[in-house]
Amino acid sequence: MGEALLGGLLAAGWDDLGVVEKVDARRAELEARFPSVRVLRDVEPADAAVVAVKPNDVRAACEALAGTKRVLSIAAGIPIAALEDALGGGTVVVRAMPNTPALVGAGAAAIAGGGAATDADLAWAEEVLGAVGEVVRVPEALLDAVTGLSGSGPAYVFLVAEALIDAGVLNGLPRDVSVKLATQTLLGAARLLVESGEGPEALRAQVTSPGGTTAAGLHALESAGVRAALLDAVSAATQRSRELGQ
After folding, report:
1. Among residues 47, 79, 85, 127, which one has the fewest Cβ atoms lying within 10 Å of its Cβ?
2. DSSP labels for 111-155?
3. Does residue 5 contact residue 129 with C-beta atoms inside 8 Å?
4. Residue 17 CB coordination number (10 Å)
5. Taking 90 as the threshold, does the pLDDT of residue 55 lie above it?
6. Using one digit for the tens of pLDDT, what is the confidence trace for 138-196?
7. Contact at 8 Å (CB) between 142 and 117?
8. Residues 6+ apart with CB under 8 A from 67
9. pTM to 2 decimal places
10. Half-sphere exposure (CA, 13 Å, Cβ side) for 177?
């Protein structure tokens, strides 16, 4: 995720960027891929930083960043209070929950500011994450729900894609044809939802003729409890996020 964010920032015209990477082999990879970026082994003084490490490494990373003016954390499950404690005070904290489509510049992220965060600090975080997708502001208490919906959401979509592909094969399509049709259908439906300005209910109604094929398919989905299963999936992921943050 950190590498995706770095690539997005460079594409958006950001410069004077530095990356801290402790692992020698990984540092060499980053130097080769991003020759205009300073790839460092240790933290150097900076006005702002992004913490993009595994949860177990967050405290050490924050302690090394003590004295930094602003810190944006995309580390999963680490609350603002823990970040502020590890930074030692005097640093503005913004916590974010991005998702993996940021790898292709189509991410969805939510941010929440710490007690000292101003609108300018949140705008800075939005600019950073906006390099790889859409950003919304929420209270920190809602970040677990964000995790359950958009953080875990790509996996739900991938599962649907798998099922659609297998369904096409079951009904006689060659697998390569089924893959192409299913993936383009998901992409096209998502673009239509975003670009048409209409809600999902209206778009669904437009493709559902009385007594037609789509009506029959939707009846099967509703009978199987697909809508309820998605509600339960988001709720379960939200609850698990809460547990991991305690």
Report:
1. 47
2. EEE-TT--HHHHHHHHHHHGGGEEEEE--GGGHHHHIIIIITHHH
3. yes
4. 15
5. no
6. 999 999 999 999 999 999 999 999 999 999 999 999 999 999 999 999 999 999 999 99
7. no
8. 45, 88, 90, 91
9. 0.89
10. 8
